[in-house]
From TrEMBL:
Protein name as annotated: WW domain-containing protein
Comp. bias (Acidic residues): 352-376, 383-393
InterPro entries found in the cross-reference section: WW_dom
Biased composition (Basic and acidic residues): 341-351, 394-403
Domain WW: 466-500
Highest taxon, organism lineage: Eukaryota
Region feature Disordered, mapped onto this chain: 341-421
Length: 500
């Protein structure tokens, strides 16, 4: 491509060579006679397009790949389209990807045309602008003008595999044929399927990717009502959509598109781990989560506390996902716990998590070594007791006849009561054995994979064991088969059986 496009001029009588010589002479400051002066100056916009090059852009192929255009946001904003380069065979040194300066000429019933196109070195361009050396060319895709700024839409569904949310927005779907995606770790707290939102858009890097939503906020008031009226769920199933269900249909529409809500919210306790180099989010070490789901939870950037750092103990909430979930488990509503003392930390490390306990035969010896010495006061009382034992007690008087009869009746009642208690215990044992047999038959063949599953099968898996205090359950480790105790409300585990 070249820098002078004679094809756009309406003067058919002018030869390309004469116009080229005239432009070269004019740039050198020479006076050039105009034999067709009257006809030439009648079209002022064309002359302005040739003399002025106020715009700068990059040469690229158009979407139809049949035309060559110069992408310039300023030109597109003024004329409604990018300027087209018309091929007249004169321009040399300009290729796709070149940065050029150019003028613009309007055409009737057509888009604008580029005039006086000439290539600019990137370093020179930035030097003239006072910005130093030219930066490297950005490979980020450009966002269409109609999608720049704040957009509005409706949260359509949630992926059952990754947990990411998708937004129904007609403008976005018309251009990309895909819905905007909200990453699970970027989702504001409390946002769900069917909620109206406002957001900004990041264009997809590849054609197979979905555009990403950023700065997502839940819409309220008049804005929310406007979004609900203008947006509707697409890709409906067969039929007219009329049903007999009651309510606003929010959950029904969500389930229709594959949404699966979390079973429950779990409150857990863990320790902040290292930060991911790719995402910048911290991992949370929590044995209960890693044992069940095989991976650690992550802290979204908006949930990170200012004073939270590596090694801090926290309590947090995490949604218990459904079956088949392979996305990221996000820790939310984080609370920093108090710092442990050295003795408490040492005791917790010695106690372990209930799965690595090893018992040795030297426990009694260790207990004897750790037993504190008796105080002087305690020793004095023991000495006094020994002295009192040496004192002779007075002889007891013989029992009367009435007392002997009463003792005999009490002995008879005691024997009868003992027989009744023994018979009752035998009956209870028989019932217990029968119940345990039935429970064993209904017990699951494999241990559950979720906390809700462990709660449901407590009486079948651990039949016959004493009942635990409120909110405590037993969980058996898959790796070692040891049983430890877990508090479903506080989210902590213990290797010792709780008493309260």
């Amino acid at each position: 491509f070249g820098s002078r496009w004679l094809k756009i001029l309406p003067h058919a009588a002018v030869l390309p060579g004469s116009w080229h010589r005239e432009m070269v002479a004019k740039r050198k400051g020479a006076v050039v006679e105009e034999p067709w002066e009257e006809e030439h100056w009648e079209e002022e916009p064309w002359e302005e397009g040739w003399e002025a090059t106020p715009y700068v852009g990059e040469v690229e192929f158009a979407e139809d790949e049949e035309r060559v255009i110069i992408k310039c946001r300023e030109v597109a904003k003024i004329y409604g389209a990018h300027a087209e380069i018309l091929d007249d065979g004169w321009t040399v040194g300009v290729a796709v990807g070149s940065t050029v300066a150019f003028g613009v000429v309007e055409r009737a019933n057509q888009g604008p045309a580029a005039a006086n196109v000439w290539r600019i070195a990137k370093k020179k361009l930035n030097k003239e602008a006072g910005e130093g050396p030219a930066p490297k060319k950005s490979k980020k895709p450009l966002l269409p003008e109609c999608l720049v700024g704040e957009l509005a839409g409706l949260v359509r569904n949630q992926s059952t595999r990754t947990g990411d949310f998708f937004i129904d927005c007609g403008k976005i779907y018309d251009i990309y044929q895909r819905d905007a995606k909200i990453k699970l770790y970027d989702k504001p707290a409390g946002l769900g399927v069917g909620d109206p939102v406002t957001f900004e858009l990041i264009p997809p890097k590849y054609d197979t990717d979905a555009p990403l939503a950023k700065a997502v906020q839940k819409a309220t008031g008049a804005m929310a009502e406007s979004i609900l009226k203008s947006c509707s769920f697409r890709r409906k199933g067969k039929g007219d959509g009329k049903g007999k269900g009651k309510g606003d249909g929010k959950l029904a529409r969500a389930n229709m598109h594959g949404y699966q809500a979390a079973v429950s919210v779990m409150r857990m306790v863990g320790i902040v781990k290292k930060k991911s180099l790719n995402t910048g989010r911290h991992f949370v070490s929590c044995q209960d989560i890693s044992d069940v789901y095989g991976r650690d939870a992550q802290i979204p950037l908006e949930e990170m506390l200012p004073d939270l750092g590596f090694g801090d103990r926290i309590s947090f909430e995490v949604d218990e996902p459904g079956e088949g979930f392979s996305g990221t488990l996000c820790a939310r509503n984080i609370k920093k716990l108090g710092v442990e003392t050295s003795k408490r930390r040492k005791g917790r490390d010695e106690m372990g998590d209930g799965e690595d306990e090893e018992f040795s035969g030297d426990d009694n010896a260790a207990a004897e070594e750790e037993e504190p010495e008796e105080s002087t006061e305690q020793a004095a009382w023991q000495d006094e007791g020994e002295e009192l034992e040496e004192v002779a007690e007075p002889e007891a008087r013989p029992a009367s006849r009435e007392e002997q009869d009463l003792d005999s009746e009490l002995q008879t009642l005691s024997d009868t009561l003992g027989e009744l208690v023994a018979a009752e215990r035998e009956e209870i044992s028989a019932l217990t054995r029968s119940a345990m047999t039935k429970l064993a038959a209904s017990a699951p063949t494999e241990d559950p994979d979720t906390t809700q599953g462990w709660i449901k099968h407590q009486d079948t898996i651990f039949a016959g064991l004493p009942k635990l205090p409120k909110d405590w359950i037993r969980i058996r480790s898959k790796s070692k088969g040891l049983v430890y105790f877990y508090n479903t409300r506080l989210g902590k585990s213990s290797g010792e059986e709780p008493t309260e």
